[in-house]
Structure formats: structure tokens, C-alpha cells
TrEMBL record:
One of its GO terms (cellular component) is cytosol. Pathway: Amino-acid biosynthesis; L-lysine biosynthesis via DAP pathway; DL-2,6-diaminopimelate from LL-2,6-diaminopimelate: step 1/1. This is Diaminopimelate epimerase. The lineage of its organism: Bacteria, Pseudomonadati, Candidatus Kryptoniota, Candidatus Kryptobacter. It comes from Kryptobacter tengchongensis. GO terms for biological process: lysine biosynthetic process via diaminopimelate. Its main location: cytoplasm. PANTHER family: DIAMINOPIMELATE EPIMERASE (PTHR31689:SF0), DIAMINOPIMELATE EPIMERASE, CHLOROPLASTIC (PTHR31689). The record marks 147, 201 as: Could be important to modulate the pK values of the two catalytic cysteine residues. It is found in: Cytoplasm. It is an enzyme of class 5 (isomerase).
Amino acid sequence: MKLKFYKMTGAGNDFILFDNRNGKIKDPVKLAKWVCDRHFGVGADGIILIEKSKTTDFKMVYFNSDGSFGGMCGNGGRCVAKLAYILRITKGKITFEANGKFYKAEILNDENVRLYLPMPKMKKFNLGLKLGKKLFKAHFVDTGAPHLVLFTDENKIKNIEKINLNDLGRKLRFHPYFENGTNVNFVTVLNKNTIRMRTYERGVEGETLACGTGSVACAIASAEIKNMKPPIKVKATSGEILTVGWNEKNSEFVYLEGSAKVICEGNLNYDN
Ligand SMILES: N[C@H](CCC[C@H](N)C(=O)O)C(=O)O
């Protein structure tokens, strides 16, 4: 059968999206593994299905490129909000659910979307994680996806650009402290409201060009550990800036603002 898809990018984190309100896609794990392959498929970091919801405009269902269930994805959340708007599933103010949690989004202009995520409750600062003989200082924030945050200066790393993420990132991603593994982010503070961040993503098993839930985790850790004040600008590997902000007095939600664009659309030759 022909299956309509939309290829989108959120600050360089790319996704294939499907409107699955009719339930046509029966095996999303198999579909993700195939369609995300950059040589035998379309190529992306993950897939996102728009499904029906009883309580919000729609439900977002997200799978990583290796077929694992991703829970929440911040860049993908902005993309799915924009697509729902383009397909007229919603108007400019959007509500959706993902993995049992409630999200809001706003289309700001042709380029940018603002996503509101519930303020993370699960936070653990100043962890000591051992890898062989080395002890790493790290912080953990669950922003709908699990994220480990390591500041380069706290770990005597001189140049964030030179970290071998596929080695060090991967080792921390599989650290036994985390039952279900974790995404791993390295952060350098550039100035009083900007950080540079690099992410090793679980489920993609490599560095991605940007990570939304990771940016939120890094901004929250930067406020706690480095006394930074929101809004905090996060410079991603793609070169794009994601902005993370919250109200320090009434922080029910934290927002993530950045680009979300449709690259192309087409039809897959697909059998379930
Ligand atoms: N790229 C995503 C993060 C996905 C997290 C996922 N890799 C997992 O935890 O399995 C984002 O923009 O928030």
C-alpha cells in the first residue's frame, strides 16, 4: 500500500511523521527501523505517529531510529505540533499527549514553534559515576526522556568540540546506574545566558544534531549548578539555537522554542 509521510526537521533533529488516526500502521517498530535507515529508507533520527486522543487534540507516538520506544521528544514535539497545524487537525494553540503526559504548543511564525513541557520532577544533581578508574560528576533530569548532563569544566574536559561522543557518550549511556539507559549531554557555559551542548542519543546510538528534551535538561541543570537565569539559549551541534525558559515563581511548565520545518512529503511503498 501507499503510505503518506512527511519528512521534518526540528533544529537538525530529523523525523518521518505519519497521520495514523486511521490506525493503518500496525507495526511501528518495524516501520521505524526501515524508514529511518539513511541508505535503505528515507533516513531520520526517529518516527512520529499522530494518533487519536480522547482528551487533547491528538496523541504523539514516538519511536527512535532503532525501533525502541522513545517516550517524549522535544524537537519532534515541535514538528508534530506544526504538522497537526498544517493538516488542520488543530488551530494555532495546540494540546497533545505523549506517553501519558500533557503538552501544549504554539505556532509562533513560519519557522518557529514553542513547546510547553511539564516541569520535570525527577532530578538528581551531583552524582558521581565511575567508569573504570575515572569518576565523572553528572546531573540527571527526566524531561519525558532520561537525560544525563555533564559540565565540561566539572569533568576537566578542555574542549567540548573534541569529545569522542561515540566512545565516552556511549559508555555513559550504558552505565549500570541507569536501568533503562540514558541520553548523555555534555555542556559548556559560553556566557551568562548561553550554553553549548552535544548529545549522544539513546535509540539513535550516536550524536544527533540537536536534542530538545536534552536542551531542557541542560538548561535546568545550568540554572541549578551554574546559577544561570532563564531564558537560556542552547547552541546545538547543527548551529541552531534552542531557547528554554520558565517562570521562576510559577513553574508548572518549561518551554522549548526553536525551528520546525517540513522538508518534503511523499508516499512509501509499505506493507505492514
Ligand atoms: N531527540 C529527542 C530526544 C529523544 C530521546 C530518545 N532518544 C530516548 O530517550 O530514547 C528530543 O529532541 O527531545
